[in-house]
Design brief:
593 residues, alpha/beta, 19-stranded mixed beta sheet, three-stranded antiparallel beta sheet, 25 strands, 22% helix, 17% strand, P-loop_NTPase, plant defense, WHD_DRP, NB-ARC domain-containing protein
Length: 593
C-alpha cells in the first residue's frame, strides 16, 4: 500500500486540496492495495502532466460518493462562495427537500447528521473557522469544489443563480432559485417561470413581490439575513401550501400573517433574531411542525443586546444586583394550544410566564413527548418550580435553556431534570449552582450568563464525566480569581471565558483539562499583566488555540504566553486582537485545519 500511496501522492503534485480530497475518499474504502491500485489507475496517466487542473481529482471523489450523499453534496452549491453554512440550517433544508429517508431505528434528523459527518470525514466539505466548541457546527465548501459542483447542480437539478452578471433566463424548468447581490430594476425576475421552483434562497436584498402565489411547488423558503424584508412581503405566504421550511432569521420582520396556519406541511419555522414577539394563534394547527425557533439567540452579548424596537426589547438586561433582568423580553409568547404540536423536536425560546393559567400551560408542555430541545423564559419563582417538577416527563429532552430574572428556583427542591441532558444554558441570577447538576453524567455543554457564581460552584462542574465545552460569559462568575484544580475537567476540550471584567487571575494546575484544545479569554480587562494573569498554559498538553482579546494592554503577559506557546510541543496558535501572534509549526495540524 505504501507503493500505491506514493504513486497517488505523486499525481496530487503536493496540492493540499487534492491530497485531502483523495485521502477522504480512500478513508471510506476498503484498505487494500488492490483498492488503492484501482484508484491510481482510475485517476489516469494524464493527471501527471495536468494536475494543475485538479478538477479531475475532485470529480473522481465525487463519483465515488454513495448515491445518498451525491444529491446533498451538490445541494451545497446553493450557498455563495466562502459562505459559512450553519449545520442545522443545512440539515433541516435537506430534510424539507426530501433528500433524507427515515431509517427504522433512527430519527430523520440523526440520519441527516450522519450524512453531514460523512461529508466532513471525506474532506468533501470543510469545518468553518467560525465553528465554536467541539463539533463542526458550521462548514464551508472549497471555492474550487463549489465551482465544479455548481455546474453539475445547474445541469442535473435545474439550479439558477440571479447575480449581478447572470446569464439569460433558461427556458427549462427551474427547480432551485438563488438570488444573490440582486439590484432593483432588473428584468430577469419577471421572465422566470416560478411554478416549478422547489426552493427559493435569497442572499442580500429581497426583491419586491418575489414571494408570489405562483410558487406552487415551493418546499423551502430561506430568507435568513435578508435585507429590507417587510411584513407586507409575506402577505401570500399562506398560499404556499407545500412549504416545509420557512426561515426569517435575522430579518426585520415584526409580525407573522395569520395565513401562516395554512402551511399544514411546515416542518421548520425559524424566526430567531427577528422582532416577532407574538405567534399567530393558528400556529397550533401546524401539526407537522418539528422545529420552532424564536426569540434572541443565546449568545455572549445577550445581556448587552439592544434592539431597535425599544418598546418590545428593553436594553437593561440583568447586570447590577437588584435590577430587573429583562431577558424574558427577548423571547416569544407561547400561543394557546402549542401542546397540540406533538411532532415538535425543538421549541424555544418561548415565554411561558406572565399569563393566565401559567401552571396549566407548563404542565401541558409535558405533552410534547418528542421534544429534544426546550428554551423557556419569563418565569417567576412559583412558575420555575412548576417547570422543574413537570419537565421530567420529557423523556427525549437533550438540551434545556432557561432565562429568567432569577433562577434561584433551580437551587431549591431537587427538580425532576432529565438525567440524559447533554446541553444546559442558563441566563439569570443563580448565585449558587445546584448540586444536582453534578449528577448529569451525559452533560457535554454548559453555557452560563448572568448567573453570578463563585469559586465553590465550579466544583459541581469539574467532575462531570462528559463535559467538553464550558462557557463562562458575562456576569456568570463574580470572583476576582478563577482556579481549576488538579485532576478535574478531564474531558473538557473548549473553555470560553468572556466578559468577566472583575477577574484578575486564571490559574490552571497540572493534570487539569488534559484534552483541552481551545482556551479563549475575551473582555477580561482586569487580568494581571504578569504570569499570574493566566498561568498553567504549559500544562495543557493538547492545546491548539489560545485567544487573548479585548483584555487591555497586557505586554508582559503577552510576552510570557508567546514564550510558553513557542516551547509547547503542539505550538498552538496565539491570537491577540485580529492577529495570529504565533503560528503553529507547519507540520502540526491545528484545530482549524
Amino acid at each position: 500500500m505504501e507503493e500505491q500511496a506514493s504513486y497517488i501522492l505523486r499525481k496530487c503534485w503536493g496540492l493540499p486540496l487534492a491530497i485531502c480530497t483523495i485521502g477522504g475518499f480512500l478513508a471510506s474504502r476498503p484498505r487494500t492495495s488492490t483498492e488503492w491500485r484501482n484508484l491510481h489507475e482510475h485517476l489516469g496517466v494524464e493527471l501527471e502532466s495536468e494536475l494543475h487542473d485538479i478538477k479531475k481529482v475532485i470529480l473522481s471523489s465525487y463519483n465515488g460518493l454513495p448515491y445518498h450523499l451525491k444529491s446533498i453534496f451538490l445541494y451545497l452549491s446553493i450557498f455563495p462562495e466562502n459562505h459559512e453554512i450553519r449545520r442545522t440550517r443545512l440539515l433541516r433544508r435537506w430534510m424539507a427537500e426530501g433528500y433524507i429517508a427515515k431509517k427504522r431505528d433512527m430519527l430523520v434528523e440523526d440520519v441527516a447528521a450522519r450524512f453531514y459527518n460523512e461529508l466532513i470525514s471525506r474532506s468533501m466539505i470543510q469545518g468553518s473557522k467560525a465553528s465554536r466548541g467541539v463539533g463542526v457546527d458550521r462548514c464551508q465548501v472549497h471555492s474550487m469544489v463549489r465551482e465544479i459542483i455548481l455546474s453539475s447542480f445547474i445541469e442535473e437539478n435545474k439550479l439558477f443563480l440571479i447575480e449581478e452578471h447572470s446569464n439569460d433566463i433558461p427556458q427549462s424548468k427551474i427547480r432551485h432559485l438563488v438570488v444573490s447581490r440582486w439590484k432593483s430594476g432588473g428584468e430577469k425576475l419577471h421572465n422566470i417561470n416560478l411554478s416549478f421552483i422547489r426552493s427559493l434562497t435569497i442572499f442580500g436584498e429581497c426583491p419586491a413581490s418575489l414571494i408570489s402565489p405562483k410558487l406552487l411547488w415551493l418546499r423551502v423558503l430561506d430568507l435568513e439575513d435578508t435585507i429590507n424584508l417587510k411584513n407586507g412581503d409575506l402577505e401570500h405566504i399562506g398560499e404556499l401550501r407545500l412549504l416545509r421550511y420557512l426561515s426569517l432569521r435575522g430579518t426585520d420582520i415584526s409580525k407573522l400573517p395569520s395565513s401562516l396556519q395554512n402551511l399544514r406541511y411546515l416542518e421548520t419555522l425559524d424566526i430567531q433574531d427577528t422582532q416577532v414577539t407574538q405567534l399567530p394563534s393558528g400556529v397550533a394547527k401546524l401539526k407537522k411542525l418539528c422545529y420552532l425557533l424564536a426569540g434572541i439567540n443565546f449568545s455572549k452579548d445577550l445581556l448587552r443586546n439592544k434592539h431597535t424596537d425599544k418598546d418590545s426589547f428593553l436594553p437593561c438586561l440583568c447586570c447590577n444586583p437588584g435590577e430587573c433582568c429583562k431577558v424574558f423580553n427577548l423571547s416569544v409568547s407561547a400561543p394557546e394550544g402549542i401542546e397540540k404540536l406533538q411532532n415538535l423536536h425543538m421549541l424555544g425560546v418561548v415565554n411561558v410566564g406572565n399569563g393566565n393559567d401559567v401552571t396549566g400551560r407548563l404542565k401541558k408542555l409535558t405533552n410534547l413527548m418528542n421534544l429534544r430541545r426546550l428554551g423557556v423564559a419569563g418565569l417567576t419563582e412559583k412558575e420555575g418550580q412548576d417547570l422543574c417538577q413537570s419537565i421530567g416527563e420529557l423523556k427525549q429532552l437533550r438540551r434545556l435553556e432557561v432565562r429568567s430574572d432569577s433562577l434561584s428556583f433551580l437551587a431549591q427542591t431537587p427538580p425532576r431534570i432529565p438525567g440524559y441532558l447533554d446541553s444546559l444554558r442558563l441566563c439569570g441570577n443563580l448565585s449558587s449552582l445546584p448540586k444536582w447538576i453534578s449528577s448529569l453524567n451525559d452533560l457535554a455543554k454548559v453555557k452560563l450568563l448572568g448567573t453570578q457564581l463563585k469559586q465553590k460552584d465550579i466544583q459541581h462542574l469539574q467532575n462531570l464525566p462528559n463535559l467538553t465545552l464550558l462557557g463562562l460569559w458575562e456576569k456568570s462568575y463574580i470572583g476576582d480569581s478563577l482556579y481549576f484544580c488538579t485532576g478535574t475537567f478531564l474531558k473538557l476540550k473548549f473553555l470560553d471565558i468572556d466578559g468577566l471584567d472583575e477577574i484578575n487571575a486564571v490559574t490552571i494546575e497540572k493534570d487539569t483539562m488534559p484534552k483541552l484544545k481551545k482556551l479563549w479569554l475575551n473582555n477580561c480587562p482586569s487580568l494581571h499583566d504578569n504570569n499570574f494573569g493566566l498561568s498553567g498554559v504549559p500544562h495543557l498538553l493538547n492545546l491548539n488555540e489560545l485567544v487573548l482579546k479585548k483584555c487591555g494592554k497586557k505586554e508582559n503577559l503577552l510576552k510570557i504566553l508567546q514564550r510558553q506557546v513557542s516551547d509547547h510541543k503542539n505550538r498552538p496558535k496565539l491570537l491577540v486582537g485580529k492577529s495570529i501572534v504565533l503560528r503553529a509549526h507547519p507540520r502540526t495540524p491545528t484545530a482549524d485545519q
